[in-house]
Amino acid sequence: MGSKSSSREISRDDLSQAFETGDARLIIEILVMRYGDYIYGYCRRLLGNTTEAEDVSQTVFVHALRDLKDLSDIQGAQGWLRGIARHRCMDRLRARQRDLRVIDSGDSCSPVDEQLAVVPSDHDPRIASALDDCLGRLDARSRAVLALRFHDGLSFEEISTLTSDTSGALRVRLVRALQTLRRCLESKGVRP
Fold first, then answer.
1. Nearest to 115 by CA among 44, 186, 38, 184
2. Which end of the chain is flanked by fewer CB atoms within 10 Å, N or C?
């Protein structure tokens, strides 16, 4: 997903003007240019796979076009898109679990793309790389709980609704994931 296809920055005013005209395709184009990279990165962190993240992030904008009438406030566009992305990622994770139960023969292993997206920042790129690698070593369910709890700020009850795990199980999963993440980062010389 590219965030800029033109030479000028896309602003909220552009989005407001598109909203006023009611041109759904223009609105979605602006949303993709403004938030496409963010939504892709979010999906990539939840799913841990670049191919699936690309598919799901595109699906997010297809659903956004279909449900554009539900976006009542353009100020909340990013959160609205993230909500769609969260639901589509959880759908993908549930489908993955279903598929694993159906084809799990004990001998097969699925290829894993270990490149997780880390939000670009002014921090040391070595730390970002270490975090990227350590997150990639976590199982998909643990990554999802981490992202939903710390990135989205959801409560354990809200995450439970999305994942069908109990709040207690989610707490245990989160504690274990954080311990594993800490050990991995420390082994790479990063102090969390």
1. 44
2. C
CATH 1.10.10.10 fits 118-192, yes or no: yes
Cβ-proximal residues to 74 (8 Å cutoff; 6+ apart), any chain: 12, 15, 16, 19
CATH T-level assignment (fold) for domain 1-116: Rna Polymerase Sigma Factor; Chain: A (1.10.1740)
Average pLDDT of the segment spanning 71-81:
83
Q: What angle do CA 77, 135, 98 make, to 5 degrees?
A: 75
Q: CA 10 to CA 169: how far, in whole Å?
A: 42
Query: What percentage of residues in the chain have a pLDDT greater than 70?
Result: 79
What would the pLDDT profile of 35-46 be if each residue is shown by its tens digit? 999 999 999 888
Task: Give φ, ψ of 180 to 5 degrees.
Answer: -65, -45
Indicate the pTM of the whole model. Answer: 0.58
